[in-house]
Amino acid sequence: AQHRGPAGDPAAAEAHQRGFEAGSLVFDEGEAGQSLFFIRSGEIELSRRGAAGVLPVARLGPGEFFGEQGVLAAELRLDDARHQAARRLLDEWMAWLRADAQRREMDGQLEALRREHAALARRVQVGDAAQKDLDLLGVDLAQTEAQHLAASTAVDVARQALTTDFPSLSLPERVPEVTVPQELTESAEVW
User: Fold this and answer.
1) Spatial distance between the Cα atoms of 142 and 171, rounded to a whole number of angstroms
2) Neighbour count for residue 34 (Cβ, 10 Å)
3) At a CB cut-off of 8 Å and minimum separation 6, what does 72 contact?
4) pLDDT score, position 34
5) CA distance linking residue 173 with residue 40, whole number of Å
6) From CA 188, how far away is CA 191, in angstroms rounded?
7) 59, 62, 65, 66: CA torsion to nearest 10
8) What are the pLDDT digits (tens) for 4-54?
9) What's the CA gap between 124 and 134, in Å, rounded?
10) φ, ψ of residue 188 in degrees (nearest 5)
11) In whole angstroms, what is the distance from residue 65 CA to residue 24 CA?
């Protein structure tokens, strides 16, 4: 039998000739298959374990091959792993963008509340507003500062998740701003 290496392996293009003695086990049922075998000479019996014991499934001879299901399954697992990694990268990138958008929104709210608090403090000094109103606005300001801190922390946590899970990814120093997409001018059929 000739042996072909695992799918995606640079050595996969290189065939290896191996001989097996009569009655020897090439691979066991349930073993992860990473090889495709081509029978050059001789025969091989494929069997499956069942409730009645080991049952022959097929007898293959010269020019036939076996093991392809394992190779195809390995390729599918690799494709699925790549797909999952891409989805995870997208999820983490979007979490980073959303956290930064919330932080920027909190920046605006915090700045507005600080200006309003300063203006109300001046009015209280001149007797034009009640101290109670200033105290209530101070509570709102403190809550907004806490929310701003949480939003800033969320940005840092999202960035850390990206750098931990994707260490080879070079992230910009600042979160990129997402612009409004341009309207497509071509018809849907073109896209």
Assistant:
1) 32
2) 19
3) 7
4) 59
5) 59
6) 5
7) 30
8) 445 554 444 455 666 667 766 666 665 555 566 666 777 777 677 777 777
9) 8
10) -60, -30
11) 17
Q: What is the total residue count of the chain?
A: 191
- For the chain, the first-to-last Cα distance in angstroms comes to 48
Position 12, amino acid:
A
pLDDT at residue 107 in the model: 94
Q: Which two tokens stand for residue 85?
A: 């990694």
**Coarse DSSP helix, strand, coil percentages of the chain, rounded to the nearest 5 percent:** 50, 15, 35
Query: What is d(CA 153, CA 143) in angstroms, rounded to the nearest whole number?
Result: 15
Per-residue pLDDT tens for 88-137? 888 898 899 999 999 999 999 999 999 999 999 999 999 999 999 999 99
| Rama region for 30: left / alpha / beta (φ>0; ψ in -120 to 50; rest) | left
Structure tokens at 136: 């209530």
CA-wise closest residue to 66 among 93, 49, 86, 42? 42
